[in-house]
Fold each of these.
Amino acid sequence: MAKRNTFKEDEVLEEPFDIKHLLRASSYIKKYGKRMISALILSAIGGAVGLLGPMIIQKTLDEVIPAGDTSKLVIMILCLLGTVLVSILFTTFRERIMVRVSQRIIYDIRKDLFAHLQRLSFQYYDDRPQGKILVRVVNNVNSVADMLSNGLINIVLEGLNLIFIVVFMLLVDVKLSLVVLAMVPVLAVFMFWIKNKQRKAWQQVSNKNSNLNAYLQENIVGAKVTQMFAREEENAKIFSELSDSCHKSWMEAVKYSNLVWPGIDDISVVSRALLFFCGLFLFGQGNASIGVIVAISSYASRFWQPIMNLGNIFNTFINNIAYLERIFETMDEKVDVDNAEDATILPPIKGEVTFSHVDFSYEEGKPVLKDVSFTIKPGESVALVGPTGAGKSTIVNLISRFYDVQGGSVSIDGEDVSKVTLHSLRSQMGIMLQDSFIFSGTIEDNIRYGKLDATYEEIKKAASVVCADDFIEDLQAGYATEVKERGGTLSQGQKQLISFARTLLSDPRILILDEATSSIDVQTEKALQKGLDAMLHGRTSFIIAHRLSTIKNCDKIMYVADGGILESGSHEELMAKKGAYYSLYTAQSQQAS
Amino acid sequence: MYKTRDKIKWIWTNMEGFHAIYILGMIGTVIYNVLQLVVPFFSGKMIDMYLTGEDAVYNMEHHRNFFFILLGVMVGATFLRTIIVYVSCMAYEKGSQKVLYKVRSFLFEKILRQDMRFYSKYRTGDLMTRVTGDLDAVRHMIAWVIRAVIESFSLVMATAVYFFIMDWRVALAILSISPVIAIIIAQFKKHVAPRHKMLRERLAELNTDAQENIAGNRVVKAFAREEYEKEKFDKSSRAYAEQNEKTALTWLSYFPYVETLANMLPSILLLTGGIFMIAGTMTMGEYVAFSGLTWAISNPMRQVGNVMNEFQRFQAASDKVLEIYYSEATITDRPDAKDLTERFQGEIVFDHVSFAYPDEEAVAPVLRDISFTIKPGETLAIMGETGCGKTSLIQLIPRFYDPYEGRILIDGEDIKSFKLTDLRHQIGLATQDVLLYSDTIDGNIAYGDVDMPEKDVLKYAKYSAANGFIKAMPEGYDTIIGERGVGLSGGQKQRISLARALAIRPSILILDDTTSAVDLETEKQIQEGLANLDFPCTKIMIAQRISTTKNADHIMILKDGKILEMGNHEELIRQNGYYADLVRLQLGEEVLASMLAGKEGK
C-alpha cells in the first residue's frame, strides 16, 4: 500500500510528460469531430472573406478616389461592409459551435472521471484527503475545457495560416525569406527551454492548490473540533503557509509564462531588423527590387503574428496539461476490487456464507486475518465479539467484497464472491456501517436510498420497525424534514436509526450490522430488537456489538481475536466452555453490578 | 448586493503593502501601449527614407548612420516595450496574488470561527467553492480585467488625441460609433449579470454534490448505488455545463453587433477620408496615418464585451466571497469579555436553561428549564433516550450554541463573560461523531498543543487505553490515519479522540458517549485511567451503560428535554423510576433487587 497522503505532501506524479495525454484527450474530441471540422471550415472561410477587405480598400484608394467617383466610393464601401458582415457571421457560427463543444467535452470528461471514482474501492478513498479528489472532479476538469476545444482549433488555424505565409514568402524571394526564417531556430531553443521550466512550475501550482483544498475541506468539516480545541489560530497559520506556497508556486510559474509573449516579440523585431539590414544593406540594392522587400517585410510581420498567437495557446496548453495529467491519472487508477471478466450474476441469495482459509491484510506484512474458516447456514444469526481492532469489521467487509482476500476464498451459497458481479452481490446485502452517513435531503429520501422505488408507506413501515417513526413524526415537517449535510442537528442515535431503516428497506438477504446500535439508548434498542427479530427471521445476519445483552440470543457467537476465530458456538455452549467469551460475559455482568 | 465602489475599496485595502507595485504595473501598461503606437512610426520612417521614398538611393549612400540609428531605435524600443510589458504583468500578478493570499487566509479564519448556525446554512462544497473558484474570479479581475481596461483606455485615449490633432472631422466620425457600442454593452450587462450569478450557484452545487459523494463513498458502495449516484451527479454536471453554455452564448448574441461596429471603422474611414480626399481637403499621407492606427480604436472596442463579461463574472463571484467575508458569528466574545488566566475550579451551574436550535425557538425547544449544580471535581452522568437532548445540553458548555433562556455559570460566572478561546481551552470534549485529521496519531492526540512532548502524548494515550493498539501499529504513533480516521475501528477512533481531549488537561472534561464502541475490558481500563488523571477536573459524561455511569456523583435522566430524575446511583435505584428500569433492563431483575436490598441493608 502506498503511504497515505495528507495535505502536507504533494502527490508525486511519476510519469514524464507524454504526448499520449493529448492523444488520449483527442478521444474526447473525436465525438465532436464533425462539429469541430465545420467550425474550422467556418473560421477558414470567415478569415478568407476577411482578407478581401484590404484588397477592396486598396482598389478604392488606387482607383476610385483618384477618379473622384463618389457613387463608386459608396458601392466599394458597401462591398467592404459586406465582407465584414459575412466574416462576422461565420465567426459567430464558429463560436456558437465551439461554446457547445467545449461544454460537452468537459461534461464528458467529468462524467467518465466521476464514473471511475464510483468504481474505486475503499482503499483509494482511505489513502488520500477527500479535498484532493474533489479538486480533480471540479476545478481540474474546468481548467482543461478551453484548451481542448478552442485551443486545438486555433492551433490548426494558426498553423495553416503560418504555412500559407511561408509558402507565399518563399515564392516571392527565397533568400530574403531565409533571412526571416533564420530566427526560427532561436525561437525553438527559447520555447524548448521555457517549456521545461513551465511544465514543472505548473505541476507545482497544481500540487499546492490540491494541498490547500485538502486542508480547507478538512477544516470546514472539522470546524467544531478546531473550535473545541481553540486551535483556530494554529490552523489559520498552517493554512496561511499552504496559501503562501500556492502564491509562491504561482509567481514562479507566471515568471516563465509571462516571458513567452515578450520573448517572441523581441525575436520578431530582431528578425525584422535583420531583414531590413540584409535586404537594403548586405545584399545591395540591385539584388532585390523595392517591391520584393516591401512584400517580404509585410509577410514577415504577418509571419510573426500567428507565432505569437501560437505562443499564447502554447502557454495555456502547458499550464493545463498539468491538470489533464491529474485527470487521466485518476481515470487510470487501478480498480482493485472489480468485476471479474467472466463475472456472473449472483442468483437470489439463500444465505449460506463460507470462509475458507481466508488470509487478509490491509498492509503487507501485517496480517489481520490468518487462515480463517467457517460456514454459516442460511438464516442463521451470527454475532462477532472480541476486542476492538481484532478484525470483526474486516470479516464483514470481506463478505460484501469491499476488499479482496489475499488467500483462501469467501463464498455465498457456494459462489465465490470474487466471481460474481459486485452489483448483484452488494444489492442483496444490507450493510449498516459504523459511520452512519446521512445525505443532505429529506429524511424520506435518506431512507429511500435503500430502495429507490419505495413508497411512502414502505418507508414509514421500515422506520417503525426500527423505532424511528416516533421521533421523525415529531419533527417539524415529519418525513419531509430536510436534514443538513452529515445529518445536521440530528443526534447520533437518530442518525443510526435512520440509517438502520434505510438498510432494512433494502430488504437484504444478508444483513450486516456493524456497531449499528452503539449510540442508541438501551430502551430504544430493546424495542428495536423486537421488530428486528421479526425482520431477521429467515435471513442470515452478522452482528457486531459490544453490549453482549443484545447478542445473547444469536444462533452463533464467534469470538474474534488474534486474526482468527478463537471460539464459536451458541451463548450456552460458549458459557459452558468457560473460555474467552465466558470471561467477557461474566466481566460485563460483574462490572455492571 | 455590494456596491462596485465598495468592492474596489475592499480589493484596495487587501492589497496593502503592494499598492506601489500595482500602480507601477498600471503606469507600465499605459507606457507600453503608447510605445506600441510609436514604434511603427520608426519602421515606417525607415521604409520611407531608405526604400520607397524618392531619395531612397541618395539617403542610403549618404545617411547610412541614420539608417542604423533607426534600426537600433526600432529594436531598442521594442526591447524596452517588452521589458515594460513583462515587469508590468508581473506587477499585476504580484498584486493580485497578494490580495488572493490575504483574502483567502482571512476567509479561512472567518470560516473557522463561525458558529454552528453558519455551518447549518452553508454546505462544505459551497464554502469550498467560495474560497477557491469564486475567489479566483476576484484574482482574475485584479490580474487581468483591470489590465485590459487600462490597456484599452490608454490606447483609445492616446489614439483619439492624435486623431483629433490630425483631423477632428474624421476623428469625430470614427468615434461616433462608441456611444452605440456603449449602449449595446449596457444592454448585454443587464442580460448577462443574472446568468453569471446563476452560474456561480451551479458551480457551488456541482462542488457540493461531488463533495458529498466522495464523503459518503462507503454508503454508496454498501448499497451498490453507483448508478444512482452517477445519475444524480449527472444532473448537476449537466446543469453546470448548460448554464455555462447559456452564459457564453449570451455574449455571442451581442458579439455580431459589437464586432460589426468595430469592423466598420475602416469603412467609415474610407467613406469620410474618401469624400475629403475627393474634395481635396485631405492628403493620402494623412489617410494612411489614420488607417495605420484604426486598430488602436477598434481592438479596444472589440475587447469591451469580453471585459464586461469577465467583469460580471467578478461581480457574481465577489458577492459570494464578500458574503462570507463580512459574515458575523452570532456567538462571539462579549466586548467586555475578560481574560482568563487561571484554571477553573470546575463548578458548573445550569440556571433555568432552555435551548432550541437556531430559528426553531418557538416550535421545537430541545431543552426546557434545566437547572442543576455540579461541584468541582464531581462527575455527572447523563442518560436518556435517543434524541432527548443529551448532546445538545453538553454543547452549551463550550458555547457551540447559546441557550435562549437562562444562564450557565462556571465558578459562579456566566460563561458569556469569558472569551470563547479561553473558555474552550479549559474544556476537553470528546464528541460522539469522532472526527480525526489525516495526520499522524501523534499529531491527532497533540491537536490542542502542537508542541507537546512525546512522553506526554504517550501518557494520555495510556489514560484512554489507546497505547496498546497504537504501539502495535507498524509505525506506532507516527502512523498516518486517513481523514475521519479511516483505517481505524470505531473503538480505536473513540480512544484517540479521548486522548486528544485529555491532552489539553482540561478543568472540565466532557465525554459524549465516547466509549460506545469500545469493548468492556477496554472500557474498564478507560474508567481506571479517568479516575487517576494527574490533574483535577469536573467530568460530564453521556453514556448508555449502567457500568459506566453508576459510580458518578450525579446521574441525570433526561426525557424530552427535561430532567426526569437526578441523584446518585443509590438514590435513583430507590426512586424505582426510569433509572431503575434501565438497571432492570441491562442487568436483570435479580441484580436490581440485590442492589436495592444491599442498600437497604446498610
Note: The radius of gyration of chain A is 35 Å.
Amino acid sequence: MRTQIRQSLDKMFTAFAGSVVLLIAGVLLVVLVPMFRKGLSAVFFTETVEFRKLQMDLHDRGDERTLKQELERVAAARKPIYDILLAFSRGLDMEPRVKEVKNIYQQYGEYLNYRNTPKEQYTECRKQAKEIRDTILDALESMDKQVVLANLDKALAQKGNPTFKDTPVQHFFTVAEQYRKTAQTVDLTKRSEYLAGLRDVTAAIRQLFGPLPGEDEPPLPMDQYGATRMDMARKALHTLLWDEQWIADGPGKPLVKKIIARKTQFTGTELEPLFDRVEKNFNALLLPRHRFYWQYFIDDWVNSHYFGGIGPEILGTLLLTVLSMLFAVPFGVVSAAYLVEYASDNIWIKIIRICINTLAGVPSIVYGLFGLAFFVITISAIGKPCILAASLTLSILVLPVIIRASEEAIRAVPQTYREASLALGAGKFRTLVKVILPAAGPGILTGIILSLSRAAGETAPILFTGVVAMGPIPNFGTPAEWVRNPASIFGGLFQPTRALSYGSYDIAVGDRISMLVPHQQFGMVMTLILLILVLNVTAIVIRSRLSKKLRGH
Amino acid sequence: MKTVKNHFGVFAAVVLAVMMFVSIATAEEKSAVGLDGSTTVGPIGDAFAEVFMKSHNCSITVKKTGSGDGVAALIDGRCDIAMSSRFLKPEEFKKAVEKGIYPVAHTVAMDGVCIIVHPSNPVKELTGQQVCDIYMGKITNWKDLGGPDMPIVAISRDTSSGTYEVFHEKVLKKQNMAAGVEYVNANPQAYARVKTTPGAIGYVGLGFLDDNVKSLKIDGIMPTKQTIADGTYLVSRPLFLFTNGYPKLGSVIHAFCIFYLTEEGQSIIEAKGFVPMTNY
C-alpha cells in the first residue's frame, strides 16, 4: 500500500515538473516568437521603389540607371492620380485660387508697364481686367451654383476680346474654365465637407508616394519619401480607401465605430476614379520587391529611427560588453583565487563574502548612480559620461557574479591536483597559475557567460555613465593617427556611445515615430537577444574545447 | 620560451596602462555638445542634432532622461544644454547659482497638453474644473459628465515628468491626485493606454493627436496651433533649452540655441508636431 502511494506521488511529481517545464517553454514561445517575427520584419520585408530611392540617396546603393527607369515608370503611373487630385482640389480649395487670380491681375499690370502702354489705354485695360478678376473672385467665393456659373460665363465671355490676346489675362480664362468644370460636378454647399475629406486623401497620398509634385521639400526625411515598405504602404492605402467614423448610438451610450468607403463620400465627383485607380495599380505605383536588408545591422538610423539601421547601437553594446569583461574578469578571477587559496577563514573574510553576495543582489540602478558619483564626478580624469565610465560601472555590476562562479570552480578542483603539483616542487603561485586555474577554466567561463549577457542587456548602470540616445559613433582614430600619437587609439573611450538596451527604451519613450515604425523597435530588441545568443554560443564553444583539452582529448 | 611569452604579456599590459594614462592626460576637447533632459523636447533635440551635425563639423549627443534629470545634469556640468518642458524651480535655481551655474532659458517651441479620451466617448467638452475633479477622484463615472455609464480610468504621467508638472500646476492647481490615478512613463504610453481603453482619460502633447484618440475642448477651447500659440488654451506651455549663461557668440552651442529661429528650424519644429514660436 505504502509503496503504491509513494509511486503515485512520484508520478505526480514527474507530471508536475514536466508541466512546469512545458509551461515555461510555452511562455517563452509566446513571448519570443512574435518578438522575432516582428523583429525580423526589420530585415526581411517587401520594399517599394521609395526604399530603393532612399538607399540610393543616402548610401549610393543600387544601380543608378535601373532606379532611374523605375522612377520614371512610377512617375508615369502616378501622374494621372496627381492630375485627378489637383483638378479636384482646384475646385475646392479656394485660397490658392484666389491668390492665383490676384497674381494674374498684378502680372497683367506689370505686362502693361513693360510695354510702355500709354496712360489712358493702361487705365482702360486695367479696368477691364479688374472687372474680370472681380467676377471670377465672386464666383470663387459664392456657394450658389447658379451665381457661380453665371459669373464664370460672364468672365469667359471676354475670352474673345482682342485686347487680351496673348496677355497674362488669358490665364484668367484657364482658371475660370477649370473651375466651371468642377462647379458643374461638385455640390458646392458640401464644399467644407469635401475639403476635410480631401485633406485626409491628400495626406494618405503623400504617405504613399511622398510629397506631391510642386510642393516644397519637407524638412524631415520621413516626409521626403513615400512608403518605403509594403506593410506601411498597405496601412496608408487603407486610410486612403476607408474612413473611420464614430457614430452616436443613442444617448448615454458609447459611440460606435463605422467604416465607410471614401469612394462613396466622393460619388459623382472628379475624385471618385482616384480610389479605384490607386487600388488597382497599387503594385505598378510602388514596384514592390522582396528584400533582405542586412545593412540594418551596420547602417546608422535617420530621422529618429524612422529609416535606417542600428549599426552604432550594436557597436556600442559590443564595446561596452567586451570592455567591461576586460576589466571584470582579471579582477574577479584573482579575488576568487585569493578568497579560496590564500585567505584564512577569519571574520573579515566572512564579512567580505557576505558583502560580495549582497552586491550580487543590488538593483542595477544603484550601480548606475554609484558609477555616476564615482567614475564620472569623483574621478576627474574621466570627468564626463563616456564608454570608459560605463564599462567600468558594468564591470563592477558583474564582478560579484564572476567572483562567486570562479570561487566555486576553483573550490571544485580536486585537492589531489594541488598536492601533486606541490609534490613536484612547484610553489603555491605556480600551482595556482599552471594547475588550478586551467582546471577551473570551464567553471570560470560559465560565470563569464552569465555576466556577459547581463552586461549586454543592462540599461540602468549605463544610463547616467556613458550612453546617449543620439550621437556620433565613437572615434578611435585612424592608423595614421595611431602612428603619430599612440594614445589616440584610446580617444574613443572618452566619448559616449549608443547602446541597444537604451536605444530600445529611447524609441519607446520618444515621439510618435516609434508607433509608426514598430519593426524598428522590435528589430532592436531582437538584435540584442541575438547578440547575447552569439556571445553565449562563442563562450560555450570555447568552454567545451577547454574541458575537452582538460580531459586529455 | 614560455617565460619570454609571459614577460611579453606583462610588458604589453604595462604599455597599455601607460598609454591609457597618457590618453587621459591628453584627451583633447573637440567641439562636442551634450544635450540631456525632457522626453518631450527630446525629439526636437534629436532632429536639430541630425541636421546640425551635417552642416557644422561638431559632435552632438542627445540623451532623454526627463526634465528634472536634465536640469540636474546641467547643474552638475554633465551636459551643455538641458532640455526642459517646464521652467526651472526656485530650488533648482538656488542650487545652480550656488555651484556657479547661471541657467539661461531659450524658448524653442510651444506645446499644448491635450486632454484625450477614447474615440468612442461621446463627451466632447469639459471644463478645467471637471478635469481637476476627475483627477482628484471626485468624479468617477462618465455618466456624471453626460457620457455613458462607464467608470473613468484616469491616466497621468509620472511625477518627475515636466508634462506632469505643467498639468499639476495649471489644471489641478497643485492639489494632490487621487490614489486611483494610473501613472505611465512617457507620452507614447499614455497615448497607447487611452487608445485601447474605452473609459480612459489622459493627457499628451499636441503631436500625439490623431484619429485613434479624441482630444477634448477645455473651457470651450479646442487645442490647436492657434489657441496654443496665443495661450488661450488652458494647458499651453513653452518648451525650453537651458544653457549655463548666454552661450558664447559664435560657439556651436550658440548656433544650436538659435537654430529654432531659422526657417529650417521652425519647419522642423512644426513637422515634429509642436507649435513654432513665430509665423515664419
Note: The longest strand of chain B covers residues 103-117.
